[in-house]
């Protein structure tokens, strides 16, 4: 039977802190559609984590969160600038364009998932003409699709020129917990000028839930109606909110991510195949030929070949040191 320990951080179970909070939220009766005290408490916990005043809503998936956010930042004849391998460009089946009624996506290059400043400058320098979708928003990801981090200064170096050109900014934080555990200051996000942030819950160890954080109050007007139309305003919204209470109030959000990051470092230290990208969060990418990957699958370990041709090993909160060592032993036998 195949093992999925390292296939994705989505293959892991939910953390006990999250599930205990869901069970606690299951007691008694309350109002619906996110107007309940559980949702309010979870939103307060998110605001406290970010040290920011913002509207917070909870939805079922990162794809929905990103697509709805970008739809709020762009008109149908406008575009979003993002890294060419960003999730919104490669893994969301056109959802931003669907929710944004036709908004475009413009992929920009950059090493290891980080947009190159020169590439952004070139895109921002293009003339505004009626024959293409000019950019209205910049989408950034931290930690990136390749498990690397943007520092505060690196983000500021991208956000500032985008803002100077009048663009809004979206931050995809599907693995924000891992970025925080690696040293990224979450309290800097609002000060950077991000308009909408997605705080990943699912990959951080929760059952399916993501938080949409709207810093720009002007965008919050009728946001619930936008969610409702998109099928993302669940009647029992407290069950999407409760996991954030469990993970944030106990410190498990950062603590569990720190473990995942440590397991990635442990795996990288034992890896016999060459690393393709720096190991800065909870991902290890390596150069591996098709024959070696096939032998790894045959040995019972399933992992994916990624967008740039490297093979990805993801470490979740639930990955154990024993599993890392078992995998490393198999890899050594293949190398």
Question: Can you walk me through this structure?
Answer:
This protein has 335 residues and is of the alpha/beta class. The protein has two domains: 234 residues, Type I PLP-dependent aspartate aminotransferase-like (Major domain) (Aspartate Aminotransferase, domain 2, 3-Layer(aba) Sandwich), CATH 3.40.640.10; 83 residues, Aspartate Aminotransferase, domain 1 (Alpha-Beta Complex). The protein is 42% helix and 15% strand. The protein has 15 helices and ten strands. It has a seven-stranded mixed β-sheet, sandwiched between helices. Strand 9 and strand 10 form a beta hairpin. Helix 1 packs across helix 12 and helix 2 crosses helix 12. It is globular and about 55 Å long. The relative contact order is 0.19. The model has no long low-confidence stretch (mean pLDDT 97).
Helix-strand layout with pairing:
Elements: H1 16-25, H2 37-50, E1 55-59, H3 62-73, E2 78-83, H4 87-90, H5 95-99, E3 104-108, H6 117-124, E4 134-141, H7 152-164, E5 168-173, H8 176-181, H9 189-192, E6 196-200, E7 210-214, H10 217-220, H11 223-229, H12 238-249, H13 252-270, E8 283-286, H14 290-298, E9 304-305, E10 311-314, H15 321-334
Parallel strand pairs: 2-3, 2-4, 4-5, 5-6
Antiparallel strand pairs: 1-7, 6-7, 8-10, 9-10
Helix pairs in contact: 1-12, 2-12, 6-7, 13-15
Provide key terms for this protein:
single chain; about 325 residues; alpha/beta; Aspartate Aminotransferase, domain 2; 7-stranded mixed β-sheet; about 40% helix
Helix-strand category: alpha/beta
**CATH fold title of the largest domain:** Aspartate Aminotransferase, domain 2
CATH second-level architecture of the largest domain:
3-Layer(aba) Sandwich
What is the CATH class of the largest domain? Answer: Alpha Beta
Overall strand count = 10
Distance between the termini: 22 Å
Number of helices: 15
- Tell me about the largest β-sheet: 7 strands, mixed
Tell me the β content.
5-15%
Q: Quick check: average pLDDT?
A: 97
Strand order of the largest sheet: 1-7-6-5-4-2-3
Order of helices and strands: HHEHEHHEHEHEHHEEHHHHEHEEH
CATH homologous superfamily label of the largest domain: Type I PLP-dependent aspartate aminotransferase-like (Major domain)
Radius of gyration computed on alpha carbons:
20 Å
